[in-house]
Amino acid sequence: MSQVIQLDGVAKRYDTVGTPALGPLTLSVEKGEALAVTGPSGSGKSTLLNLVAGLDKPTEGAVTVAGQRIDQRSEHALARFRREQIGMVFQFFNLLDDLTVADNIQLPAQLTGTARRKAADRAMELMEVLGIQKHARAYPGRLSGGERQRVAVARALVNRPALLLADEPTGALDTASGQDVRDLLVDLHRGGQTIVLVTHDLALAEACASRTIHLVDGHLALDSRAEAVR
Amino acid sequence: MSLFGTGAFGRVVRSGVGRRRVQTVVIALATMMAVAAAVVAGSLIVASNAPFDHAFAKQQGAHITAQFDPAKANASQLKDTGQVDGVTASAGPYPSTTIHPVDSNGGHLPGLTLVGRSSPDGDVDKLDLKSGRWAAKPGEIVLSASFTGPMLGVGSTLKASDAADSPTLTVVGFATSVSETADAWATPGQVSALGSKDTPVTSQMLYRFDSAGTNGQIAADRKALAAAVPSGALVGTQSYLDTKRAADQGAAPTIPFLVAFGVLGIVMSVIIVSSVISGAVGAGLRRIGILKAIGFTPREVVRAYVAQALIPAGAGIALGVVLGNLLAMPLLEDTEQVYGSASLTVAWWVDVLVPAVALLVVGIAALVPALRAGRLRTVEAIAVGRAPRTGRGQWAHRAAGRLPLPRAVTYGLASPFAHPVRTTAMLLAVAFGTLAATFAVGLTSSLNAVGSASDPEDRAAVTAVSGVPGGAGRGPVPRGDQEPPSADPAKVRAAIKAQPGTASYYGMSRTDVTVAGISGPVDASFYQGDSRPGSYEMISGHWITGAGQVVVPTRFLERTGTKIGDTVRVTLEKDTRTLRIVGEAFDTSNDGLAIHADLGSFPGAEPQVFHIEVKPGVSPADYAGKLAAVVRPLGGDVMANSPSEQENMILILNAMAVLLTLMLVSVAGLGVLNSVVLDTRERVHDLGVCKALGMSPRQTVSLVLASVAGIGVLGGLVGVPAGFALHGFVLPVMGHAGGTNLPPSVLDVYAPWQLALLGLAGITIALLGALLPAGWAARARTATALRTE
Q: What are phi and psi of B104, to 5 degrees?
């Protein structure tokens, strides 16, 4: 198995005094692995996700994702990296309210310069898979929370990313919708998609993840794979 | 103790101002520029509103300037005339005489009315000392400010006349008398000493009357003065109405120009300030919801938000008044030169009214959205920015999404439709900015065309002077005490014809004629040969092509009630001819009372000057030198002409147009900047999402710039025709104020490529205004933006 994520001694400080928000942390994630990152608020979960997504840069250490060292790249290169290698799903969906469902899903493909027709076909394919094709021309504001999160997942997958990052994907959903999204993530993992899932929800982590790490105060407190080896 | 106290209210206001520093700075800057533009515009409108009347009132100008014979009325009798019925103030008697001074180079100045006054002050005609000081002792002279120039300055010396024993006078200052009571001033003793048999000393009295508004009232006042002194003592009077008429005529053409720019500046200021403030308050709705949730009453919320707008706006207003005054001063000095009036300053009430109105506009602009926010239910206010937005502009996104353009661009193009009011304000700002630029370009071109159209005979490369037959002409005469040239025109013409390098030439003579239907002399220019190179711009008809034809200015047609095709009877000395009007020329000289005819119409007349064009490659200076070697022995003279310099007023108006345009365009750019800052701030979360999905910094910049590009294009499409129309309206009004129609060369100044370029001004203003926030949006940290609600 090849590594999709490799963190070597990564630390992130937001100010010059005090302890770092994250790390130093060394961690690798294999291709096809579904990693759940758990921990209390302020433990560094979102910081870890931002570093892996190239949304933030570490204060020290090296971040390698999909074989590319991303911690020293320019903003422009990081944007290209994100659109080609990363799909992101957020707690509050982060759909663009003034675009239709289909347009939201196509957006990352269009940013890469994919032909309009091809992007539309890919979006339709994903909508069919996720069961939201009837909402293609609707606006996100008219959808339920579960439907919106399905749209967000479709958008995250449109460019066939090497890595899917999900930040509390069920945190804003009711129980039924949460279950839908959980099933969806399980299916994606079974299909071979590498996933990093940040969540407070231990049940979600247990259901979706092949491996779980627990962060406390920015440090790795538990790694289920290491436990298993031990 | 701070202005807003140390309690919760004060903290909310201070943190609101401090936290949104960009917004605070933009509000202050936009308000400052808008107020500065309004102060400048207001001052210019005030200055252009009856400048003579204002300056006359400020100086307590003399309604009647009277000259008395001191032999028939002594000083006591003259002082008593101050008690005549209707006189409200008087000054004098001052000794007065006429001198014909000679400068240090031997050049003769025109005859000057010299008045002896011990100080520039007085109950009437309080002179405005422009530079230097007042004459304190004999040998010192203060000149009218109209003589200021490179040849004459403080410290220059003049001889009182060209007589060998004439005293030397040192120029110690320059002063302005709006009533034009004198051309120069000296101590009373000096003036009395300069009197002679030819230039006797008279006594000058200056009067103000309670009724002096009409010629009839002035005549009655004059009659009362004459009756108050011994018979024959009153030797002459000058009415301020004549001075006012001449001054108003000089100022009139500039007034529509200044009013147009002034109104533009004020309208733009109101639009920008309103949109900046209302946008800033409207953008704080969520914070308002939080304040209400923690216990602020609606009234406290309204007060807090109005106060938050007033702090930076107040600072901007104060700075704007200072900046406006600083910018207005040089413009008013220029205006003063144009009007020939006394010191113009920013009227105190402009400095009070503009900030007061600005505060009112800011208050209202802040109050309306603040009241709306105050009335908003707390849960609704908190939901702003988190709850899905209303469907405004979704259709635009659908439509733009179909355009064959990059997605970042189409997304940006559709954005303005989400905020129709803000977009309208931005559109107005861009349209007004483009309008100002279009108007200014047209005006500058027109003024330059006016300059080029004036004195066409000056366009000749070389001028040869043959002479002044009978001494009646007004052709170019060398300065100083040299004798004017006098050569046989036929011999000069033959010399020009024989001179290698001559391309073409025509003869010209200028003299006074009388025209049936016009009292007094009319300035006549007669041409011999092919005079087309020296022809005036034609408003209608054509230039003279032979004897029996005459071309006249607009005012001539108006005064004589004639039109092209009619005939006029023109008398030169004793020779009367009937000439047919073949054209209306753009000629404002001599108040439009001028004619241009062929010299052949009056066989006895001879040319005084010849205007010569040289062949390509021939140096005019070399040509003039060689021709002079032939013509000077004949008694004539030759000179190469330097390119004519533009008139002072045209240069001043050009400078004004450029400065005012820059100010208005800056205000428009700030309006765009503010709107884009608000928009970017509101959409920072969406931009963060886009960046998280892989939108590059360049694509982010494209998105933000595209969001104003459509507005810029539309603003240009609205602003250019509006500026074109304003130019088409103002120029003829300026022309009529100056007593003339305008030729196509002055009116039709816009080339199609210029209009196309000006159309780009709209998008340029919009893009420049959006560039800064676009950069901020591109650099904003994605993780931070995603956390922003």
A: -65, -15
Provide the ipTM: 0.85
Select the residue from B685, B693, B701, B789 to test the A interface by mutation, using most A Cβ atoms within 10 A: B693
What are chain A's domains?
3-229 (3.40.50.300)
Residues B31, B498: Cα–Cα separation, whole Å:
70
Supply B248's token pair: 């108003």
Q: What is the DSSP string of B658-671?
A: HHHHHHHHHHHHHH
Confirm if B206 and B179 have CB atoms less than 8 A apart.
yes
Cα B539 to Cα B663: distance, rounded to the nearest angstrom: 35
Contacts of B631 (CB under 8 A, 6+ apart): B464, B487, B492, B495, B637, B638
Nearest to B694 among A83, A94, A139 (CB): A83
Among A79, A84, A95, the residue with its CB nearest the CB of B695 is A79
By CB atoms closer than 10 A (0-12, 13-18, 19+), residue B413 is: buried
Pairwise CA distance, residues B782 & B474, whole Å: 79
Report field, pTM of the whole predicted structure over 0.95: no
Q: How far apart are CA B639 and CA B645, in angstroms?
A: 17
Q: Which two tokens stand for residue B357?
A: 């109105």
**Which positions of chain B have pLDDT values less than 70?**
1-9, 12, 16-20, 22, 48-51, 106-111, 149-151, 245-259, 261-262, 265, 269, 273, 280-286, 289, 334-344, 378-391, 467-486, 520, 590, 642-653, 787-789
Pick from A53, A111, A113: which is nearest to B695 by CB? A111
**Selected residue of A111, A142, A147 to mutate for chain B interface (largest B Cβ count, 10 A):** A111
Identify the pLDDT of residue B113. Answer: 82
Q: Which residues have a Cβ under 8 Å from the Cβ of B391 and sit 6 or more positions away?
A: A139, A141
Q: Are B503 and B614 in contact (CB under 8 A)?
A: yes
> Which is nearest to B505 in space by CA: B619, B609, B624, B616?
B609
pLDDT in tens, B4-56: 555 666 776 777 666 667 677 877 887 887 788 778 777 777 776 666 777 78
Kindly identify which residue of chain A lies nearest to residue B691, measuring between CA atoms.
Answer: A79
* CB distance B27 to B56 below 8 Å: no
Ramachandran bin of B334, using left for φ above 0, alpha for ψ from -120 to 50, beta for the remaining angles: alpha
The 3-class SS string of B431-481 reads HHHHHHHHHHHHHHHHHHHHHHHCCHHHHCCEEEECECHHHCCCCCCCCCC
Query: Which one-letter DSSP state was computed for residue B593?
Result: -
Q: Using only C-alpha atoms, what is the Rg of chain B?
A: 34
- Specify burial of residue A67 (Cβ count, 10 A radius: 0-12, 13-18, 19+): exposed
pLDDT in tens, B495-530: 999 999 999 999 998 888 888 777 767 888 999 988
Q: Which residues does residue B239 pair with via DSSP β-bridges, in sequence order?
A: B64
Q: Is B709 helix (H, G, I), strand (E, B) or coil?
A: helix
CB B609 within 8 Å of CB B465: yes
Half-sphere exposure of B403 (CA within 13 A, CB side): 16
For residue A206, give the nearest of A220, A229, A224, A190 by alpha carbon. A224
The crossing angle, in degrees rounded to 10, of helices B648-682 and B684-692 is 70
Listed by start position, the domains of chain B span 1-62+249-387, 70-232, 391-455+646-789, 456-640
Contact A215, A45 (CB under 8 A): yes
Task: Enumerate the β-bridge partners of residue B576.
Answer: B571
Q: What are phi and psi of B504, to 5 degrees?
A: -160, 165
Do residue A80 and residue B781 have CB atoms under 8 angstroms apart? no
Please report the residues numbered 661 through 720 in chain B whose beta carbons come closer than 8 angstroms to any beta carbon of chain A.
Answer: 685-686, 689-699
